[in-house]
């Protein structure tokens, strides 16, 4: 199977994630879309690793997973806190920082 | 050279008097005038003591020095605060303290009705102290301290009655015009330091002969500018007339014993510079010649007795500056005229004060007349001063002024003839306006205001006038007997060869007396044979009008310096406001404006930020794509 197909899939997943971040209001969904983009990037790294025949891409994928895990911890904590104080998980409502 | 520890008392005594009188406040009102007079008199006593010591020594040992303290010591540049009393400065010291003390005595009575008399005496003492420091300093830097002190004291005294705005303005005018001269002196000091490396008289005298003529000329011209400021010479003469705003004793002090003689002192003291810089010396002569005619012409049109005398001072100082500009032959005669002038001009100013005292402070001579009978002592003392300034033998002015005229004629070539004619002409005009003052004030019919009750002044006022009158009569004869003053001063100046004489002394005296006689006769015909109007006539020739306005000196200064100066100032203020402040405010406005525009982007919506990041990333990738 042609390795390029994995890259196409990766691009597709990234696009879905990006559109999701821009379009959806619910913070949880936005968060999931960000995870989707990260994983699309992981897929691309692993594919490049396969194409080049070395392990560099795979190592970077591990790093990405660690970062994603940390991000989930911090991000979910923020979302939960905002939800507790404002009774809403919409990202558009939390626009008070501009003032 | 001899050293002495007592020189400092000359300055310290009047300075102490000024300090006590200023600090003691109202407590000193009862005895302040006595203390001030005593301090001045004791300074005169120290001066006399120094003279007696000096007379007992040989020529070389006569100059006395005293080092006070080390003032500036930077690398190889050393200035000590030191005093130097030599044959030249002793003349000034005795004139300043002697005439100064007489003026102090006169002021006790003249200012007795003024509730600020103590402050007046404090300033008088300060004036004497500053002037003494000026003539005793052993370097230009020390002289400069006294020079500035004189400027300050004159400002305080001219504006003594500063409750009248016009008087306060007059003192400011004197101060500002003097500052221009002061700039000249400071430039001269800077040039001397830069080119010669020292500022002491002795040091510069030593190095003068191997310094470039250009540098010496520059120093000389700057010193001349300084002298024109303090001595009210052309073109910085305009303050002198307005300086009459001060009480009359101040006018006497400024015009006879201090202040205006500072310029003559400066030029005579700097003889080693001017002798080596002929261009600067020629300028000195030209300034003197212009001023002596300038002052004399103003004098002919003034109805204010003090302003007429002020114009005459300007003219007489012109004679001295001219004499000092003639080089080694002229210095001694300039000093001689300065000393005789000190006597007769102080006497006449005090006489004018006495007349004002008896006439309710009226200064307009057209409202005087016939005062001879009511003020006999004032008339006699003023009259002796009048004969002295005219140069009638054997009064003082005859000896001193004739010598300057003679030296001017004999200075050689066309220059000599021009200068001789100018000085002769000046003598004639002087005779005219001084006769006018005499006739208008003391003779003819009375033209007084109804409330005037002229009376003779008290003894404290006429005694100084009488002493000065004795000086007006005898000083010229005493100073020129056996060339006493010339020989006394000779060691200080470069010796000069014999000059060929264009005119014999007797011819010069004859010519001068003829000019004086013409001046007197013209004044007599014009003011004694005809009625004098109590109000100055308006339908006069254009020349009289110009002379009444001081030969347009104020209009000239206003048109050429003041108005362009004001324009420049307002232009600079506008530039400051619009260009410099504008630039600063513009930067702030730019930051504020761009901030408020860019703030619109910061919507606070996370999704729009994300979209912008996405678009940015896409554009970046596209750009990289295109480039690669």
TrEMBL record, chain A:
<dbReference type="GO" id="GO:0030964">
    <property type="term" value="C:NADH dehydrogenase complex"/>
</dbReference>
<dbReference type="Pfam" id="PF00420">
    <property type="entry name" value="Oxidored_q2"/>
</dbReference>
<dbReference type="InterPro" id="IPR039428">
    <property type="entry name" value="NUOK/Mnh_C1-like"/>
</dbReference>
<feature type="transmembrane region" description="Helical">
    <location>
        <begin position="6"/>
        <end position="23"/>
    </location>
</feature>
<keyword id="KW-0520">NAD</keyword>
<feature type="transmembrane region" description="Helical">
    <location>
        <begin position="60"/>
        <end position="83"/>
    </location>
</feature>
<keyword id="KW-1278">Translocase</keyword>
<keyword id="KW-0812">Transmembrane</keyword>
<keyword id="KW-1133">Transmembrane helix</keyword>
<dbReference type="InterPro" id="IPR001133">
    <property type="entry name" value="NADH_UbQ_OxRdtase_chain4L/K"/>
</dbReference>
<dbReference type="GO" id="GO:0016651">
    <property type="term" value="F:oxidoreductase activity, acting on NAD(P)H"/>
</dbReference>
<keyword id="KW-0472">Membrane</keyword>
<dbReference type="GO" id="GO:0042773">
    <property type="term" value="P:ATP synthesis coupled electron transport"/>
</dbReference>
<keyword id="KW-0813">Transport</keyword>
<comment type="similarity">
    <text>Belongs to the complex I subunit 4L family.</text>
</comment>
<protein>
    <submittedName>
        <fullName>Unannotated protein</fullName>
    </submittedName>
</protein>
<feature type="transmembrane region" description="Helical">
    <location>
        <begin position="28"/>
        <end position="48"/>
    </location>
</feature>
